[in-house]
Write a structure and sequence with these properties.
The structure holds two protein chains of two kinds. In chain A, strand 1 and strand 2 (60-65) form a beta hairpin. Chain A has a five-stranded antiparallel sheet, sandwiched between helices. Chain A is 60% helix and 14% strand. Chain A is built from nine helices and five strands, in the order ααββααβααββααα. Chain A is elongated. Chain B is mainly alpha-helical. Helix content of chain B is 66%, strand content 0%. Chain B has helices at 2-18, 22-31, 38-45, 53-70, 78-87. The longest helix of chain B is centred in the middle third of the chain and has 18 residues, at 53-70. The chains are: A alpha+beta, B mainly alpha.
Chain lengths: 238, 95
């Protein structure tokens, strides 16, 4: 499938349509895989694409690649702590191969990337607000495959991808929080039941009942919720 | 009052060692049955307000359960070895 180079609005449209489908699954890996295959279709001359999400320390958290070669090229960057994606992420700028100082910038990565067959690349950060979530790179096995227009296209693509991935990350965080809240409420209920149980059995106050749970928790080195579960489950006095 | 100040400091130190945000400790506190809201808890941890002693105890227990979570593993006793050998149908070996 080939897609003509699109203005930013069309890219935004593509991602918006994709969001509807993928936010229901809300997996970051799927989102990144979508971004990479779309990039190859969008940037003319691309042989492959890789994208990585980075934590504030520059460590890779999740990544996707359209093929094993780009996977190798990207793995190499993170092993050597050197490469255009890392530079694009750090400097919040688009980088295109063919500059005079490429060898100076990436003295370890560049020769090895050439050995692997890469001849040209463009890297762009995934900018979300004031920071970058990660970076995206397209590469080619042809020399001078990318021009300034391709660099600009990838920059705009990176901006849209950042919004898309940012949304997926938010949905994932919200889902986790919701699961966490549900579990917290479940345990709070259980502990309240155990307190009521002890109050009835021993004729003590709610506060005293909690302190009994605490003491048993400390004595048996178990969590209060586990002590509570046993009390609620057992038909006879412990 | 010196002893009380020591305990206050011990409490603060315990909270810091737990290495959790106020939001996270509140969630644990709430899960144990605590009534104070997040802002009150934050104020209490900063020494700005007082809370009923039961609330303090629930908070202390939330912190202590977290400390147990991140504590280094304990050394198993001989009874633990015996229990593993009996339960494992011979497939477990003591380490």
């Amino acid at each position: 499938m080939t897609v003509d180079p699109s203005p930013a609005e069309e890219l935004a449209g593509v991602f918006a349509r994709m969001s509807g489908v993928l936010l229901s699954e809300a997996t970051v890996a799927t989102a990144l895989a979508t971004v990479t295959s779309l990039a190859v279709d969008t940037i003319p001359g691309s042989s492959g694409c890789g994208v990585s999400l980075l934590d504030p320390n520059g460590r890779r958290t999740t990544s996707a690649a359209t093929d094993p070669l780009v996977e190798q090229l990207d793995d190499l960057q993170y092993q050597l702590d050197e490469g255009p994606c890392l530079s694009a992420w750090r400097d919040l700028t688009v980088l295109r191969s063919g500059a005079q100082d490429d060898e100076r910038r990436w003295p370890s990565w560049l020769p090895r990337a050439h050995q692997l067959g890469m001849r040209a690349f463009v890297s762009a950060p995934l900018i979300n607000g004031a920071t970058a979530l990660g970076a995206i790179k397209v590469y080619s096995t042809a020399v001078e495959a990318f021009d300034e227009r391709d660099g600009d296209l990838l920059r705009r693509f990176g901006e849209q991808a950042a919004i898309f991935v940012g949304n997926v990350l938010t949905v994932r965080a919200a889902a986790r929080l919701s699961d966490q809240l549900k579990e917290t409420l479940k345990f709070r209920d259980l502990i309240a039941m155990a307190r009521g149980n002890l109050m009835a059995r021993r004729g003590i106050s709610a506060d005293e009942a909690f302190r009994e749970l605490m003491a048993e928790s400390y004595r048996t080195r178990r969590l209060v919720r586990d002590v509570a579960a046993d009390i609620v489950a057992s038909p006879v006095e412990i | 009052m010196a002893a009380s100040a020591d305990l206050t400091q011990q409490f603060r130190h315990a909270f810091e060692s737990a290495d959790v945000s106020v939001d996270e400790v509140w969630l644990r506190f709430f899960g144990l049955g605590g009534e104070a809201d997040r802002f009150e808890l934050d104020a209490y941890l900063n020494g700005a307000i007082t809370l009923p002693s039961i609330e303090h105890d629930i908070l202390a227990h939330a912190i202590n359960e977290r400390l147990d979570e991140i504590a280094p593993p304990r050394a198993p006793y001989s009874a633990d070895f015996q229990r593993v050998n009996v339960a494992g149908d011979g497939e477990e070996e003591d380490s």
